[in-house]
Amino acid sequence: MTAQALTPTLSDAELTLIDSYWRAANYLSVGQIYLLDNPLLREPLVAEHVKPRLLGHWGTTPGLNLIYAHLNRIIRERDSDVIYITGPGHGGPGLVANAYLEGTYSEVYTGIGEDTDGLRKLFRQFSFPGGIPSHVAAETPGSIHEGGELGYALVHAYGAAFDNPDLVVACVIGDGEAETGPLAASWHSNKFLNPVTDGAVLPILHLNGYKIANPTVLARIPAEELDALLYGYGYRPITVAGDDPANVHQQLATAFDEAFDQIAAIQRAARLDGEPGRPLWPMIVLRTPKGWTGPREVDGKQVEGTWRSHQVPLSETRTNPAHLAQLDEWLRSYRPEELFDETGALREELRAAAPTGERRMSANPHANGGLLLRDLDLPDFTDYAVTVDQPAAGTAEATRVLGTFLRDVINRNPDRFRLMGPDETASNRLASVFESTDRAWQAEIEPGDDHLAPDGRVMEVLSEHLCQGWLEGYLLTGRHGLFNCYEAFVHIVDSMLNQHAKWLFSSSHLPWRRPIASLNYLLTSHVWRQDHNGASHQDPGFIDHVANKRPEVVRVYLPPDANTLLSVADHCLRSRNYVNVIVAGKQPALNYLTMDEAIAHCTRGLGIWEWASTGSDEPDVVLACAGDIPTLETLAAADILRHRLPDLLVRVVNVVDIMRLQPESEHPHGMSDREFDSVFTTDKPVIFAYHGYPWLIHRLAYRHANHDQLHVRGFKERGTTTTPFDMVMLNDLDRFHLVMDVIDRVDGLSSRAAGLRQEMVDARLAARRYTREHGEDDPAISGWTWERM
Amino acid sequence: MTAQALTPTLSDAELTLIDSYWRAANYLSVGQIYLLDNPLLREPLVAEHVKPRLLGHWGTTPGLNLIYAHLNRIIRERDSDVIYITGPGHGGPGLVANAYLEGTYSEVYTGIGEDTDGLRKLFRQFSFPGGIPSHVAAETPGSIHEGGELGYALVHAYGAAFDNPDLVVACVIGDGEAETGPLAASWHSNKFLNPVTDGAVLPILHLNGYKIANPTVLARIPAEELDALLYGYGYRPITVAGDDPANVHQQLATAFDEAFDQIAAIQRAARLDGEPGRPLWPMIVLRTPKGWTGPREVDGKQVEGTWRSHQVPLSETRTNPAHLAQLDEWLRSYRPEELFDETGALREELRAAAPTGERRMSANPHANGGLLLRDLDLPDFTDYAVTVDQPAAGTAEATRVLGTFLRDVINRNPDRFRLMGPDETASNRLASVFESTDRAWQAEIEPGDDHLAPDGRVMEVLSEHLCQGWLEGYLLTGRHGLFNCYEAFVHIVDSMLNQHAKWLFSSSHLPWRRPIASLNYLLTSHVWRQDHNGASHQDPGFIDHVANKRPEVVRVYLPPDANTLLSVADHCLRSRNYVNVIVAGKQPALNYLTMDEAIAHCTRGLGIWEWASTGSDEPDVVLACAGDIPTLETLAAADILRHRLPDLLVRVVNVVDIMRLQPESEHPHGMSDREFDSVFTTDKPVIFAYHGYPWLIHRLAYRHANHDQLHVRGFKERGTTTTPFDMVMLNDLDRFHLVMDVIDRVDGLSSRAAGLRQEMVDARLAARRYTREHGEDDPAISGWTWERM
């Protein structure tokens, strides 16, 4: 439908006010891209006033500013609680301009005042060394969204809206961004949004027609196909189109009124009338020229309304007088003298166009989620402990135990905790959570469906992008959550993790941004137990990816059993501003530590397991391990050694927190050389069985003294559909091979132990034969337990 | 529209034939999941005939088999050239069953014959140690698609269809997969498919209603929303729905006839009548029960038609006699005695249901692309060389030079080479390609558009997923290409790269799969030159990700200048079965090597640059570098050292192929210890300036003797919008810091060079001050060149 009204929505005065405010934002945007000095053009513009390097993106900016000005009217008139998500985040100057016009910028950055000097600084700092990024970023007040990598605007918007029933999240989606996969999938998020307990998302698809050098798909399909597409996504599109400002202002005002009316009606129907089912939510399609109000033509080529306006329409302003004159004309076309008073401040009458206080989108606390963050009400995790009378004798499914804890976390925090996963919550054995909640589902429900409800706290969709993006949006607005995922497929969100980690690192340097809850991953169905799925599901490399991020913001935990997993999970749920990666198995596996031991072990991050070691003095060899399966194989190897080579002094070390392996200079969790040496010795062989790609352990530990004696076994990208023990054998991580490694590495042992070594070779062959013949592992191997001698 | 016909499409005989064939495929599928022995149930079924570990996915399989059987009819009747892409790839047993029924399986795997013993082996090997994966994979004849990670079926289908005008790519999309981002974006690929020169893609959206434990979004929206969505994507959906086999057979036959008729009509109109514009392509929506024809109920719970049929509907067949009886009943419901003769071979009359020879989808050469691969007709890359009279004196934009070469590659190979990129081809300075071709674009074209045409060879869409997926599909069907991408955002396809690398590794062990062209990445707009974009665009970690893959299939090149880039690119375009990652800058940068020198250098992969070294004997220090910016800074540091510490013997080593740094035991390109030592010495400090995260160099080199003396500088995740030199200073990779590193590391030098060290500290401060003040780098630094002394 097209926005139309019989009488104009905006009075002349209101139209003038909005248009003036838009001009002011556009003026400040162009100023940021171009000007070093002379911010209000009170002197004739000369080349020296212009930045030597012109870095920024104009094309999308006037559209962003237009939407912002119109949302301000809605907020003022309706006292609405609105935040603004900027999909085309390279339009950073526009959002900075608006935060400045609202006064928020000067409140947050006190050095940049609302006067001519402040304007000069505002302009100069943009994309300038030591200044601010050219994109919408953590540094931008009012943003929860780094706009550099496109695709995540809409999914962030939904994450922000969940459990915020009074919030409207206005989300501008660029037509370039709309071509990305994550954005294309995000539209269907409305099947997971409950109109009763969640807020509203108002997508604004901005069709300015072009991306960097190309037209966009959605701008070049017939209108009826576009409308059908959006209806198919579950929206009722309201179209606004034009290139005459006054006309577009009226249309857009009408469209926003309609959209907010519809949102109010939907929420009223759902909340007061108890109307069930999924409503068609309104959205806006805005067709305006790219680079609108900028130079029409430059050097004889059309710029406004084309891809040429994407970055800086005039590129030679320092050297080409014609370009400089055009810049001057462009800036003056906004009539700055009408917008700013003699001190350089926005004229009083224009200030009325913006809301005040926390209603300003740049100062809305939802966009600085740490301000709203309330601690989780956590049950005592030790209440969920499994009883361990003896190490490595009984078994539990670690994630199933964790599920009971999460069940009660959900119970106690019905408004601020969500569990995300790509349809794997039950598969990952967290099904206890369904004793206290359901899966969020706003689409049709049929008999026989399992735990679906509009207000479910578990969010399952077959898209890691949506799980990650929803959770990011939810955390950035001050809530808590956990993303459970198959280990291999979390690589799908590698790039999203990058951006979130950068955001956390940047925001930790901004005193006005309050810490938010950590992004917690539970990676299960991991590389060693993909019996069903084989090679495509086997990849432990996410840890390596995470380890490349700033050490200030990343933590990686490999709890070896159920009690350590509980302890680690409790710690992660209490932490702030981190990315926590927990890797834990879901299959029945041995328990090693009592709850008290688990807490002590996880607090240290790693430790010597005396009960599994022979002798407590300086050992002959260290068997180190990190991860549940490597721990199992290491202990089984230690078991063979203590029986067969009882004189060999073996020390077993388990590592939960692999960042501990680094020097303290490299990571806050790192160990001093003295600490490291006291555990790993300075000169004894260390056979390290590791969950993932072996070189990560080398990388973490290479600066420590004993690095030359470190021999790491891990995943060598050898995988297929096979049995658990066959998998470890394929990668030389099995108990028999670890014993062989010990024999090969301990000086003087190989002759003494030649017979044992051959036995190990034979044992591997026999195990493989058994597996090939029976289709399962030899029970003597898979049923191994540690017995007191 | 719903498929209906006044007279039934299928005669009774044809219906019986198709249904029998479907039953045979279903029987073989269930047999693979369950049976170790007694493959034709000629003895009473007992527990020992059943596999001890039941691994596989039944739910999607009957639908895959149904579609396969109906496509066979179309191929027979129309002599169509069709390949089958299996989105729900965990339905592996179905595709294996069909390849076996067609005889292809026994041709390829001669040990598995078309008799009872062959059936026994076929069943036993499935998901069995030493056998075949449970998913559709490289091992599956007829597949170009590993079905483990969902999301890429449709984009692979389009990649396969490009430049294959006579091919129809039937692509089954599961409704679970349809929730993923990459799949959601892929629908719009029809805006890039030219009906004149490309083949057709026939999407078949299989709505069986459930994913692992949840319903699916597209199955639970109203039919009118789904139809609108698909029309909005540019398709004309034909719906088939039901749970009565005979009825569904008739509907589906009618639907396929309609779809193939429409495809033929579209192609005729475009090719013969020259009808312009983008047609609405047909597609099929197939609604049938999940786990159709399997057990209705198990243990009192509904299974057929629910998520419970996703994997193995009967899980206790070894221990629960009721389950075993149900399995027996289930298998016998397909009436195997009617399907297979006494020798165990498919009955002769049923063989008529399948096409023959290369028309069999399991034997179609397009699905074994190496069979069709023709070498590129490559121009002589040395013709494009830049002239280098003197090293490090003149400049070129390396990618712009490469663009001229690629222009002629495209010219000479109009049917088998495509260049993919997310709207960055011009930004990445490859614009010369537009002298010989356009951007592929089948949507609306408006005046002022830049080089758009239906038959363009450059494919630009703002989705790295689509670029990667199209190229994968194109390569897997025997063609060539290059993906140019911003370095940071190639992480978006980390997970796709994983699956492609696994495919290459697996297929290299299958003698019947012929090698395909390598997947070539050109990563430009790299971490060090993101002046416009800042932190969000700065991430060199893709190299680390690639380095975790099997060494047999990955190569990484960092050519330092234009001529080395040409040499590397030529090499990569000729290579087979690799993933080649090329990182190269697009900005003006110094040229170091003549073409002859570049060829020699790239052939060795790394080498000592004598012209930049002082003395040719054993040096006091090695300055190593990899990447264009590190090379620049290293040479500038060497320049300072030769002037200021002329007695210090400095060796400059440049590395193009970083896999060379590994031991030869670890990678085919690795160096022996002797080779490594002869370049890097055994005991002298090596200051290594590296393009990416520094620890990768440690990881690659840690087994070599001189590792303890290796000091690596690289990207430390310190970035923002700033000048190029400020970026290297932020990360201590700048020339001044490298000189400081030399002074700190060379024994006895620090006292001699204390003054110079302080000068370097001061130079860094001065450079930073200059940048902060002027907004650009000091020209004395940015304009540095190497002068003959």
UniProtKB/TrEMBL annotation, chains A, B:
One of its GO terms (biological process) is carbohydrate metabolic process. InterPro entries: Phosphoketolase, THDP-binding, Transketo_C/PFOR_II, Xul5P/Fru6P_PKetolase, Xul5P/Fru6P_PKetolase_C, Xul5P/Fru6P_PKetolase_CS, Xul5P/Fru6P_PKetolase_N, Xul5P/Fru6P_PKetolase_ThDP_BS. GO terms for molecular function: aldehyde-lyase activity; magnesium ion binding. Its cofactor is thiamine diphosphate. Residues 10-371 form the Xylulose 5-phosphate/Fructose 6-phosphate phosphoketolase N-terminal domain. Gene3D superfamilies: 3.40.50.920, 3.40.50.970. CDD domains: TPP_PK. Its EC number is 4.1.2.-. Residues 586-786 form the Xylulose 5-phosphate/Fructose 6-phosphate phosphoketolase C-terminal domain. It is an enzyme of class 4 (lyase). Keywords: Lyase, Thiamine pyrophosphate. Belongs to the XFP family. HAMAP family: Phosphoketolase (MF_01403). This is Probable phosphoketolase.
